[in-house]
């Protein structure tokens, strides 16, 4: 009995000890867990602060980079605007050079055109002066019959002077009409006359610059073509460019062949049909020369601004580019056919409406 009581007491003590140990373990585990949680939150807070610091630094660096890049782009923009402005100015100057070159060609041609009637006026004026002197002598001799004859000749001379004076006036007015600043307004113009007029003026301009210049001119104007609605100054400028190029090409070929070559420039106009209708809907002005032709490697570039096959100082490279734009503005096409060393042909294709 006594042993049983001791055993029971011992078991109770062991149980209580176990509970104490278990509770103590729990407390220790709780404390450790709590400390770990506190340390975790502390570490998390430190990490968050570090992330915030790094993010702030990155933002500052990014902002500085953006500001620096913005400044660089602003500078580049200013430089680009200056470059564009300079290019526009240069282009305007080159276009003006092209216009002045065309004007110079026209002026030379007009001077030659006017020279013929002026020569007639001067010659008949001199002859008329002599006739007046002869008439005075006849009247002094009281030779009325001779005076009447001289007066008849004098009257005829004055009629011829008036005729050639009016001819010069017509030439000047016609050229002023074609060379004045284009208003962009379309007018009804006789295409055949316009083409023939500019062809003659261009040829005369080359003749004045080079007394040895010679080229065969062949024309085939379709008489069915009447008046066509175009901007005469602009189409005249296209024709002048094409004629200039044609005469230049045959001159160069003749020079290359040491003169053993007959230069030919042909100008043709014709009416064309479009689609299945029999009604004419287009007109063509074709300028063909038997000059040097254009290389197949270069022909696709000829309508590009500033492209030229002429030596430096002899071309701005704007003539065909401007001509192309003018024809396009009329709703037409500027078509080229060429074979190097043989010929070049440019066709201005314009709609009738």
TrEMBL record:
Entries under PROSITE patterns matching the protein: HIS_KIN (PS50109)
UniProt catalytic activity: ATP + protein L-histidine = ADP + protein N-phospho-L-histidine
Alphabetically ordered keywords of this record: Coiled coil, Membrane, Phosphoprotein, Transmembrane, Transmembrane helix
Keyword S-adenosyl-L-methionine: no
Cross-referenced Pfam families: HATPase_c (PF02518)
Coiled-coil region list: 63-90
Gene3D superfamilies in the record: 1.10.287.130, Histidine kinase-like ATPase, C-terminal domain
Membrane-spanning ranges: 12-32
Molecular function via GO: phosphorelay sensor kinase activity
EC annotation from Swiss-Prot or TrEMBL: 2.7.13.3
SUPFAM superfamilies referenced in this protein's UniProt entry, alphabetically: ATPase domain of HSP90 chaperone/DNA topoisomerase II/histidine kinase (SSF55874), Homodimeric domain of signal transducing histidine kinase (SSF47384)
Source species, domain of life: Bacteria
Enzyme class, broadest EC rank: transferase
Location of the Histidine kinase domain: 109-353
InterPro entries listed in its UniProt record: HATPase_C_sf (IPR036890), HATPase_dom (IPR003594), His_kinase_dom (IPR005467), HisK_dim/P_dom (IPR003661), HisK_dim/P_sf (IPR036097), Sig_transdc_His_kin-like_C (IPR004358)
Protein name (record): histidine kinase
Organism: Segetibacter aerophilus
């Amino acid at each position: 009995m006594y042993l049983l009581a001791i055993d029971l007491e011992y078991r109770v003590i062991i149980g209580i000890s176990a509970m104490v140990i278990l509770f103590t373990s729990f407390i220790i585990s709780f404390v450790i867990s709590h400390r770990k949680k506190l340390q975790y939150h502390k570490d998390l807070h430190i990490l968050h602060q570090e992330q915030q610091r790094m993010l702030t630094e990155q933002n500052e660096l990014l902002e500085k980079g953006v500001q620096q890049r913005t400044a660089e782009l602003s500078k580049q923009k200013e430089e680009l605007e200056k470059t564009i402005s300079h290019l526009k100015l240069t282009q305007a100057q080159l276009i003006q050079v092209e216009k002045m070159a065309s004007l110079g060609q026209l002026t030379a041609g007009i001077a030659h055109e006017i020279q013929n009637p002026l020569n007639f006026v001067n010659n008949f004026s001199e002859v008329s002066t002599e006739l007046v002197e002869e008439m005075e002598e006849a009247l002094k001799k009281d030779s009325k019959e001779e005076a009447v004859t001289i007066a008849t000749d004098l009257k005829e001379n004055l009629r011829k002077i008036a005729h050639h004076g009016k001819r010069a006036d017509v030439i000047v007015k016609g050229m002023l009409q074609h060379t004045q600043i284009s208003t962009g307004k379309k007018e009804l113009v006789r295409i055949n006359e316009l083409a023939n007029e500019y062809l003659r003026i261009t040829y005369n301009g080359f003749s004045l610059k080079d007394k040895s210049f010679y080229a065969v001119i062949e024309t085939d104007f379709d008489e069915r073509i009447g008046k066509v609605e175009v901007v005469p100054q602009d189409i005249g400028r296209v024709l002048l460019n094409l004629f200039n190029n044609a005469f230049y090409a045959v001159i160069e070929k003749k020079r290359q062949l040491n003169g053993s070559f007959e230069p030919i420039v042909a100008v043709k106009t014709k009416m064309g049909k479009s689609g299945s209708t029999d009604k004419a809907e287009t007109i063509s002005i074709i300028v063909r020369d038997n000059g040097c032709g254009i290389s197949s490697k270069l022909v696709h570039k000829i309508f590009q601004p500033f492209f030229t096959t002429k030596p430096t100082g002899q071309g701005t490279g704007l003539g065909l580019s401007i001509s192309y734009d003018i024809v396009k503005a009329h709703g037409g096409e500027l078509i080229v056919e060429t074979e190097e060393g043989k010929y070049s042909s440019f066709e201005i294709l314009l709609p009738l409406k």
